[in-house]
Give the backbone structure.
Amino acid sequence: MSTLKRVQQWATFARIWHIYDATWQNPFKSAELLKKFLMGVHKPIYHPMNDCGDHVVIINSADIALPGDEWKKRAYFHHTGYPGGASWTLAWDLHRKDATMILKKAIYNSMDGNLQRRYTMQRLHIFPDANVPKHLLENVSNQIRQLRPVPKRLDKYNLEEVKTFPKLIDYPKDYIIR
Amino acid sequence: MVFTTAVNFVRSRGPDEFWRKRRIFKLAAHFVGRKRNCYSIAIRYVHRALRYATKGRILKKIDMRNLWQTRIVAGCMEHDIDYNVFRESLYRSDILLDRKTLANLAAWEPYTFKALTDIAKRRAIDDGLASINNQHEVDRIITKGSLVKT
């Protein structure tokens, strides 16, 4: 095997580290996207028995955005195994306890339940904020595009920009905005 | 052989018992336990195995097709083009390649596959099939459709 072929082989099967910013992203839609990278479905060499999945580092998981009233309605079930040990935790409560849990469960549930799933999950690294350990961050070589762009909030614009923003009409002085 | 009664005629069927059983035992050779040694048990499991084999011949084709599909979708994702747009554009460009060929190209001949996606993108732009990102990258490619238009 020539040197070129050998290096080509390494490059083909090397694990790539991706980073994904979860700020204001739907965790369930994101899970469908990220599981492809974790399982290696995004590579043309994919095969179910070919261990070609990549690592994914997710940052800012505390800032995910659930659609609709899912924060109040979505319940996560847990059973201790003892009689009467069932408990249902609402999404907002789970997120308060552990800000990485909703994303982790969303990705775990988006994959088929087979023997490979637990090992695939080990290649996932979730952080509630942007503080990623240096030894993980220096591996990262690709950023996954966010599903939806994060809009800039009105209170983040300075007063000058808000004043000079073009508008259609000025409200009359005596107009009451409800 | 002369059969004096119908009962004896029924009992004497097929080839010699040893060879008849041997044919079954050969098929059961890789089974585990009494399934491979005892005839009456072996025959049941051989029948079942043959039924599975019949189903498997169809399932294998379906599985391979799904695998090729997954690989082509992955290749399309690398080059930022939708799978359906890619296939439709290739069809319109008279490039009639099947899933097996496209998957092999995506895995083993990535530059050839990129050329195919470029042609597909050009065709998609010319026919207005879908919005293609980075359109300037396929400016150098000319298809029959773009010649007619200009």
